[in-house]
Amino acid sequence: MKLMTHIVAGYPTLGESEQIARTLLDSGSGFLEIQIPFSDPIADGPVIAAANQIALQNGTRPRDAFILLRKLHEYAPDKKLLIMTYFNILKQYGVEKFCRDAARSNCYGLIVPDAPIDEEAHTHYLASCKKYGLHAIQIISPITPETRLKKIAQAASGFVYCVARFGVTGAQKKLPQELGGYLQRVRKSIKVALAVGFGISKRAHIAALQNKADIAVIGSQIIREYQKSGLSGVAKIITG
Amino acid sequence: MEELAFEFFHAKKDPKFRAQLKDLYNNYSGRPTPLTFCANLTKKMGGAKIYLKNEGQNLTGAHKINHCLGQALLAKRLKKKRLIAETGAGQHGLATATVAAKLGLKCTIYMGAKDYDRQRPNVFWMEQLGATVIPVHAGGQILRDAINEALRDLLTNPQDTHYLLGTVCGPHPYPVMNTYFQSIVGAEIRKQLKREGAGVPDLLIASVGGGSNAMGLFYEFLDDPDVKLIGVEAGGKGITETQKKAQHAARFQTGRTGVAEGFQSKFLQDKDGQLKETHSISAGLDYSGVGPQLAYLEEIGRVKMTYALDREVLSAYTLLAQTEGIFAALESAHAVAEVIKRAPKMKKKQSIVFNCSGRGDKDLFITAQKLDRKRFRAYLKSQL
Questions:
Q1: Same structural domain, B6 and B44
Q2: Is B366 part of any domain?
Q3: S-S: B48 plus which of A109, B295, B346, B353, CB 3.0-4.6 Å?
Q4: What is the nearest CA distance from A78 to chain B, expressed in angstroms?
Q5: Which residues contact B303 (CB under 8 A, 6 or more apart)?
Q6: What CATH number does the domain containing A216 carry?
Q7: For B272, which of A89, A122, A166 is closest by C-beta distance?
Q8: Residues A92, B273: C-beta atoms closer than 8 Å
Q9: Confidence of residue A174 (pLDDT cuts 50, 70, 90)
Q10: Are A194 and A214 in contact (CB under 8 A)?
């Protein structure tokens, strides 16, 4: 089981977000999501949303995330670094320019929850990702219908992000029971690797995903741990 | 969203659904609302004939109940058990809580924590109607944050919950659907003018927050090329802004096209695409985005957008009260402010209809503080 972890660039400060990222990479996280903060992060739960707000108050801008990405790539060249953000950030930066600069910063792929494949004719998001060799990570949920899964399968690249439950990001005590069946169903249509996120906060959760998925995603739990016990707490989530 | 869109397009063709909605409009909310000829204001302005569409006469005091009733009926068809909604000043939340009570649905209202504190009377009313009101502490603690929180609730409870979005914004089908439910406003106006022997109006004026009352007024007349359409945004303290906050909510003055909260439209935003905080004397217009249909209609030149400053709005509010005996909501008073600017320059045989989208009682704590501060504060103190 591989691991993907998450930071918000600029939270609690730009320097600290870099420290957290390094700790995560050192502890064995093979993938890292670097979130560019947005004023209206509708797919994020309260913990990450609040971190977005603070990162913006610190004046964090998209180019800060690109610089961070470069530094982290130099630090750990074999790790896969992704950018997570919302579509308006790309739109105002210029979608193609954004993809170019992300690629130049050695980005592996983009996760943009509000850039659905249906809007490609307007956004040119997938085309721009392709042009610059970035994986446009698709997102699916337990209520994604079969027909849509098939469409997503065609656009899937790198891996697919499977939301483990309804709702927004945030740590849960237990993973939902029906997760196994859901992932099996997804596996039938999707040929790339499956990452599972939204609600994973413990090692026991990761163990429960064994043989069902390829990548476990830990997000808001990292922020909680950092708030509680700093970098050592962050490392402990992974190393146990 | 696909499920909702599917149901909406079926329901609007279903005679049973239409009959249910009509019954609620007429026998519950009190439609049709009056179209009042403002004889005194017309005389005072000395130009075009001025008509007021009094949506404030609806149950709960504003046009919002038009789409609340429509959406709540849809929610029932979809076998949903629960309505959720965002609210700024509390008007849309109040209308949602009202229809939830009437149709036997559970109800949760999200409200930015700042709004929750400053709109205590509406929180009280909503709770009295049986709704749960949740203050949202994220972000700027205003309308936008309440929308985001309601969307999160919907993503978490998609099976039993209907999100009753309160304006012509958001993802499809909300803009189309709310426009459809609000279009009764313009449709009634056409009939009412006909009955009076008057033709189509020369000019329609509506305030524009998200755009629901404007779309309701305009929709019926979009294909009448001789009817001019004007939307009035909140000019606030003037069209100035810093990196993070605008002193107004005039998206068509300084906004740019963006994507947020599930739709593309004009937003007040900074260089990076972060949405700005806005300001208006009226909470209902205090929002950084605007309905995508209005953004389109403005782009093709069908609708002209202008703005009214807070102080112009207050004097328009007083003038309407003293000439016609009608308290307009501060949102609607933006339309009045534009009427006052336009009417004197128009010919006497021409006519203006403006949408008085809500009544002004709800603004007591704002208007009284501005217009009769000393005595009102003394009164508040005496009540403690």
A1: no
A2: yes
A3: B346
A4: 30
A5: B214, B218, B229, B230, B231, B294, B297
A6: 3.20.20.70
A7: A89
A8: yes
A9: low
A10: yes
